[in-house]
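Entry — protein

Goal — fold tokens:
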Amino acid sequence: MVKRGLVAACAVLCAVFAGSAQAQNNVPSPTLDAIRARGQLICGINTGVAGFSLPDSRGVWQGLDVEMCRGLAAAIFNDASKVRFVPLSSSTRFTALGSGEVDVLFRTSTQTMLRDTTLGLRHVTTYFYDGHGFMVRTASGVERARDMNGATICLLQGTTNEQVTADYFRSINVPFQPVIFERGDQAQAALLAGRCDAYGTDASSLAAVRSTMPNPSEWTVLTERFSKEPYGAYIRRGDDNWFDIVRWYTTAVIEAEEQGITRANAEEMRRTSVNPNTRRLLGVTPELGQSLKLDPTWAFNVIRAVGNYGEIYNRTMGPDTPVGLARGPNNLHTNGGLLYALPMR
């Protein structure tokens, strides 16, 4: 009788959990529903940073953040072109997201506790690791930030870099003069014009700015780093399904690189692989897509459209591009980096 009672109890619990999972899967997603109804994803990006988001000579947006937006559109529509880009400054990006002007931010936005808990927004998952640095004229002879006693430093309004710079110079009791701009192109112009002795922002952005200077060799990015700047997508609070989609989409492009799935071999691997993880990721078995309310081949469609994370990185800002950034912390954990795909099962 005891055994029968345990079996019955287990059956009840299984039914409860199954019902709970089914109920969760039936919860509507206002954001996903709105995107599907308009037939287009609206993605907030930077106003212009080489390697992340910058129009090319034809006026077409290019960069890592841009490709992350296109990949998300492919996950939803199986069409990477169904995305509209909205360039946003540092000071307006979170307001634009909160008001519904955009569906998601892929916009060099650091994940911080106060942003996550006070803005009515949620950061999703890290897709790029960076750190605050400074760029100076090579001829200045400055080798360390502490050498910039009394320097004027270009900074962007509404960024973590304002606080990081102020905190650092206060901590070493060295005066400096901040010169604040709303956009990166304004700061770059001021730097070239000699209004600032240095530019303080994330190191990847400094490398991007340096690559677009008339004479890049005249500028040096100091080797010191003064903060942790993990970039993550941001969405509005209150839509769990949309949170899940953005999080697991970001994870999927990293997982694809871990598994060696590329734009070139995705179709063959979907057809021939016997690896259960590969079959789940590429939609041979449908449970991942079903859990997100997406097509079973959602991740397969993403990889065919934009490739895995390494492919995206290398063609937008890798060593063979004008930005010329090595992978560093943005390499897979198996190659000494920090990128690590959560289990997709």
Notes: Confidence is low (pLDDT under 50) at residues 6-23. Residues 100 and 263 are 33 Å apart (CA to CA). The first strand starts at residue 41 and ends at 46.
